[in-house]
Amino acid sequence: MTTDTVTGSDYGTLVRTHLARVEQHNAAALDDVAELVLAAVQADGTLLTAGAGHSLAAVAETFYRAGGLACVRPIYHPELLPMHGAISSTSAERRSGLAGEVLREAGLAPHDVLFVFSTSGVNHYPVELAQEAANAGCPVVAVTSVASSAQAPRRAGVTLAEVATVVLDNLVPPGDSTYPAEAPVTAAISTIATAFLWNLLMVRLVDQAAESGVRLPLWRSANVEGGDAANAELLRHYQTRIPQLG
């Protein structure tokens, strides 16, 4: 057996072990979030999903993809995208006031749900998103790492987890890197763990909807037979309130 094979096996085991811990740790919270989302769907509400930096990968996971919810509106600002400027995106996330601007443009209603993805959960943008939504009476789901927040500087005074309605903990260690285990320097796990949490939520939501007799607005792939036709009705319904579907 080659060294490379052993290394790959070790890392695969590490990821699988982490995801098993994430699933077990968040079992009750995922049930609670699924209930919130199902209520929003029944009220014809919108799920707003937000993040900054690499957490925007999680936002992309929620929006306009096969098997995903059509009632998702991604909210963001170009300054938060690392591809538009790595250093400036970090500065934007730490700037107070940007969250309020973004939410005012998106709009919030009590029957909506705001998801905020931020592993560190300490910068102004994610924290103020949650605070603004809570003040508007909108439930907030934080997808974050409580352990990472505990060791990061509290730039916003409080952490995202402390102001959220429900917390989904991706259990990411401070610094995000996971390999090698004894002194991690690479293999960030936050994207994998967060995407796993989102899809665990989708599975619960489908099961709860079936039990309640609720039809979920789910996208079909545009690259399978009948996909475009199936999605056309959803586009007609949601396009006016979700401009990113245009």
UniProtKB/TrEMBL annotation:
<dbReference type="InterPro" id="IPR001347">
    <property type="entry name" value="SIS_dom"/>
</dbReference>
<dbReference type="Pfam" id="PF13580">
    <property type="entry name" value="SIS_2"/>
</dbReference>
<dbReference type="GO" id="GO:1901135">
    <property type="term" value="P:carbohydrate derivative metabolic process"/>
</dbReference>
<dbReference type="GO" id="GO:0016853">
    <property type="term" value="F:isomerase activity"/>
</dbReference>
<dbReference type="GO" id="GO:0097367">
    <property type="term" value="F:carbohydrate derivative binding"/>
</dbReference>
<keyword id="KW-0413">Isomerase</keyword>
<dbReference type="InterPro" id="IPR046348">
    <property type="entry name" value="SIS_dom_sf"/>
</dbReference>
<feature type="domain" description="SIS">
    <location>
        <begin position="33"/>
        <end position="211"/>
    </location>
</feature>
<dbReference type="InterPro" id="IPR035472">
    <property type="entry name" value="RpiR-like_SIS"/>
</dbReference>
<protein>
    <submittedName>
        <fullName>Uncharacterized protein, contains SIS (Sugar ISomerase) phosphosugar binding domain</fullName>
    </submittedName>
</protein>
<dbReference type="InterPro" id="IPR050099">
    <property type="entry name" value="SIS_GmhA/DiaA_subfam"/>
</dbReference>
